[in-house]
Target: cytochrome P450 78A7-RELATED
Amino acid sequence: MSMLANLSFLLFFSAIISHQTPWPVTVLLLSLSSCFAFSLNYWLVPGGFAWRNHHDNQNPSKFRGPIGWPVLGTLPQMGSLAHRKLASVATSLGATKLMAFSLGTTRVIISSHPDTAREILCGSSFADRPVKESARLLMFERAIGFAPSGDYWRHLRRIAANHMFSPRKISALEPLRQRLANEMLAEVSEEMKERRVVALRGILQKSSLSNVLESVLGSDVHIKREELGFMAAEGFDLISKFNLEDYFPLRFLDFYGVKRRCCKLAGKVNSVVGQVVTERKRAGDFRSRSDFLSALLSLPEQERLNESDMVPLLWVNKLFPFLSSYF
Model:
């Protein structure tokens, strides 16, 4: 249908210009209009520009989605309450079960139907997720939440189940929690004696931070907590920042300085957390400790992670989520 419309447009346009302009100009205009008409067929497909090679020409009614803008796709329509806008578009197109659209050259599908959403979330077909450029540079793809489905991800999951959330591990950290609770009670009692008023929020935050750092890295680690907090805050800012590289193949460019800042921050994280790992290796005696780092270092040789994998696991899965909300 679109090809027929473009052909009609060309015939109509050529009939108009052939009587009003010299033939060289006519040829040039016809060439330009032909290129324009054929380019329309390139991106005027359900779902938009990114889906141009993936739609079913034999049965286009099965594939629904907004055409969007040339090259940009649906990006200009994103903004506040984007989920409501997309749900409204899906309803208007009768594509609540599955709707395709484009964000630049990135293909996206959404579901506004509970059964389809359940199948997507519970099935293995969508186990992997695209990793933002900033998240990739900040080593998120080496952690459990963003690692591609496969042997490495299953290995990380086994480590998490056996050494992070197992009943034995939780029981082993009971003395730490008891000590921190006693310290909180003592601090509350002291403030009550001195000022008759207690700022509980600061005490709870301090104790929570100590609990996370000591359960992950150990109680004898000398590390600047403020520095870790600033690193986490910057990482959160970089991951949430809009970046054209996530939607277009522009990795050789760095429009907003995101790549430069990510590389700098990743180097700092590797330096700070990597130094803790190196010092713990040098100290030895891992099995007598109950922190998560010692558990990783005491794994059997065939299960042990490289240091390049330990740092992202410690940082992304254990430290970053808490620190980014704390500071």
User: Anything to note?
Assistant: The CA atoms of residues 216 and 292 lie 5 Å apart.
